[in-house]
Amino acid sequence: MIKLAPSILSADFSQLAESVKAVENAGCEYLHIDVMDGHFVPNITFGAVVFEKLRKKSNMTFDCHLMIEQPDLYLEDFVKAGADIITVHQEACVHLNRTIHHIKELGCKAGVAINPATSPQALEYVLQDVDMVLIMSVNPGFGGQKFIPQSLDKIKKLKQMIDAKNYNVDIQVDGGVSVDNIHDIVTAGANIVVAGSAIFGKDNIQKAVSNLRDSAEQS
């Protein structure tokens, strides 16, 4: 069964705690928290202080996606704030292997994200060290974008790379996920799916989550 990771980038920022509780009550396993610095991506969201406050409101797995430059400078802050998984961008890390091991030394699971223009082959020599790979199916920085169809081929290639070495690595997909494409995303090999407007953009969150699961698991 897939795991759903609602992205609070699409939630009502004036009612974050209530939004987090709503998706947890709907059965979502992960909470995807996009941290943006206005440099690596053209937007600014929130930092470790907000993260820490939300941590006290939920028992979900906190999935921290750092879309920032020089992520190594902030790893300890997010670990202290309660992150379970920290994902950094391959494109933002000068010494990716070192960053991955730093995350693990701090007691977190380590993820690596790749942008739409980055090939899965760029991760060939770190796959054995990571817990998760995040394939961005939109260009990072904004919610509500359309899914890039070529992402399906990237998911398949990454899945083949993982299976060929028998690695235990989750594949997460983020960007433009909807009831119309989640089945194809899961069939291609993803097992953790980030959804923003497809969950928080609906009037009934419980129903939105149920619809996504049903679509993902259809035969």
TrEMBL record:
Substrate binds at residues 7, 65, 141-144, 174-176, 196-197. It comes from the Bacteria. The active site is at residues 34, 174. GO terms for biological process: pentose catabolic process; pentose-phosphate shunt. One of its GO terms (molecular function) is D-ribulose-phosphate 3-epimerase activity. Keywords: Carbohydrate metabolism, Cobalt, Isomerase, Manganese, Metal-binding, Zinc. GO terms for cellular component: cytoplasm. A divalent metal cation binds at residues 32, 34, 65, 174. It is an enzyme of class 5 (isomerase). InterPro entries: Aldolase_TIM, Ribul_P_3_epim, Ribul_P_3_epim-like, RibuloseP-bd_barrel. Binds 1 divalent metal cation per subunit. Its EC number is 5.1.3.1. Pathway: Carbohydrate degradation. It catalyses: D-ribulose 5-phosphate = D-xylulose 5-phosphate. Belongs to the ribulose-phosphate 3-epimerase family. PANTHER family: RIBULOSE-5-PHOSPHATE-3-EPIMERASE. Catalyzes the reversible epimerization of D-ribulose 5-phosphate to D-xylulose 5-phosphate. This is Ribulose-phosphate 3-epimerase. The lineage of its organism: Bacteria, Bacillati, Bacillota, Clostridia, Peptostreptococcales.
